[in-house]
Amino acid sequence: MLHSALSKPAPFAIVKAMNKGRFYIFTWGCQMNEHKSEGMAGVLTEAGYQPAHDLAQADIVLFNTCMVREKPVDKLYSEAGKIAMLKEENARLLLGVGGCVAQALKERLFRKSPGIDFVFGSSNISELPQLIERARRERALGRPGWVMAVDKIPDRLEELPYLHSSRFQAKVTITEGCSNFCSFCIVPYTTGLLRSRPPGDILSEVSALAEKNYLEVQLLGQNVDSYGKDLQNPEINFAHLLRALTEIPISRIRFTSSHPQDITDDVIAVMGEENNICEHLHIAVQSGSNRVLEDMRRGYTKERFLELVRSLKEHVPGVNITTDIIVGFPTETEADFQETIDLVKKARFGGAFIFKYSPRPGTIAFYKHRDTVPSEEKQRRLEILLELQKQITHEENCRRIGEIAEVLVEGPARQEEFFMGKTRDHKTVVFSATEDLVGELVSLRVTDASVAGLMGEVISRPHSLPLPCRERVTVRV
Ligand code: SAM
Ligand code: SF4
Ligand code: F3S
Q1: If you ran DSSP here, which 8-state letter would residue 435 be given?
Q2: Rounded Cα distance, 151 and 353, in Å
Q3: According to the model, what pLDDT value does residue 143 have?
Q4: Pocket of ligand 3, candidates 8, 25, 26, 30: which has the most ligand atoms within 8 Å of its Cβ, to mutate?
Q5: What is the number of structural domains in the chain?
């Protein structure tokens, strides 16, 4: 999952004949936000706008923002300052801000950052073309004003014409919002309560992707295990949805995030039984202290979580379990922190995102405790845990040396002349290959390992896959 405050443009390939302007999107936050950016790109290209390949080409800049911690919010304001400077050279340039900060702050954003031309909410993406037109009119009349479309509370499921940024991997939303209200988390306030998409819509979308030869879909929800709880039909739950999806001829199905309170034995059973469900589970534990878990309102204990890990490892052979942990939650003592260390040693996660607690105004923990652990202490705990997890990840990766793995080749690696891809259990592998293998499933022997991932050599394309056209033609000749 993308937990950094990195800003990156969404690469989009479609170019339409009509051009009302070029747009460039910065995305912060979770994978659901990345997917929303694909929705924004889809809405705009359908309305006649084109993607800009760099910022210098853009007439419209969109910020898709995140509020989960203070850092991405700070980043939004510093990037808005840079765009304000660009506007001095390009009078046409418009800045629109959407995503979770826009949803929460609404018109207050205009006061906080005067360079913003329009603001749109989490469920108002389809209104983008109208907002841009209005912002342009206001600009032409010399009265740039507060152009805004933000639902009071996001309570709709907006169906968007997503422009997928890959031709072989696609994200598919199954739920929006979250009704859990963990005491530290702002997400339910910025995305609204749980809303599940009807199963028929999800099945149709995945079938259409399979017909377009997509190899991998990633199902998205803040808590995928809560899928269906709002639909008032006991027949509909996440395990049923997964089983139905496995009937569709698509090689890989992934999903994120799972929740320790809501994952069922049935979901674990489907993962173990069905070949096209990948053996990776991202399931945030947050803490190993039962006292802290209760104060976080997470709904499980350390013992229940470790039992879950045991059951997963038993029923889903080779499963890679990754997690999120927060250090320095208010009132977390050294003894609480040691409980988390103990849990990490026992669970042996394949990887972990570790965060320093960031107080979020509006949340239960903020009003109950504010921020009691000093920042140097949070930093100390973060470093200890990072070091421990690095050691475990390295050891677990080294155990893979010699293994034959199926890898989906995603593109060039950072190392020149090398390519990278992902195993079924979501390990990054770097290997020597050629451009024509991008978007293909290959068999690969793991030859080396580091903390960052695996190294390997391609052995062959799996026999079960249809031969690529080129080879089929050769056979006929
Ligand atoms: N829905 C996911 C779940 O419950 O597993 C989590 C989604 S949240 C966007 C991603 C992660 O951000 C959380 O698992 C948590 O570790 C972290 N996070 C959320 N609020 C935070 C806060 N106030 N301070 C620090 N980290 C936080
Ligand atoms: Fe936030 Fe908890 Fe919902 Fe995850 S489950 S999004 S941590 S409230
Ligand atoms: Fe951030 Fe909103 Fe996702 S707060 S983590 S972008 S749901």
Answers
A1: G
A2: 32
A3: 75
A4: 30
A5: 4
Pocket of ligand 1 (CB under 6 A): 30, 68-69, 184-185, 187, 222-223, 257, 259, 284, 286, 324, 326, 355, 357-358, 360
In our burial notation (b when 16+ CB lie closer than 10 A, e otherwise), range 380-394 reads: ebbebbeebbeebbe
Handedness of CA 363, 255, 353, 79 (dihedral sign): negative
Which atom of ligand 1 sits closest to the CA of residue 259? 5
Do 336 and 448 have their domain in common? no
Q: Which domain holds residue 10?
A: 2-149
- Name the one residue in this structure whose structure tokens are 């963990």: 182
User: Which residue out of 223, 324, 373 has the highest number of ligand 1 atoms within 8 Å of its CB and is therefore the one to mutate?
Assistant: 324
pLDDT in tens, 441-458: 999 999 999 999 999 999
Q: Are both 33 and 67 inside the same structural domain?
A: yes
pLDDT tens-digit profile of 267-304?
999 999 999 999 999 999 999 999 999 999 999 999 99
Confidence of residue 462 (pLDDT cuts 50, 70, 90): low
Per residue in 178-212, pLDDT (tens digit) is 999 999 999 999 999 999 999 999 999 999 999 99
Residue nearest to atom 7 of ligand 3 (CA): 187
Task: Kindly report the pTM of this predicted structure.
Answer: 0.93
Q: Whose CA is nearest to atom 2 of ligand 2?
A: 182
Supply the CATH number for residue 305's domain: 3.30.750.200
Same domain? For 27 and 87 the reply is yes
What is the amino acid identity at position 322? T
Please, where are the H alpha helices in 141-237?
187-191, 199-211
- In a domain, residue 79? The reply is yes
Residues 262, 324 within the same domain: no
Binning pLDDT at 50, 70 and 90, where does residue 15 land? Answer: very low
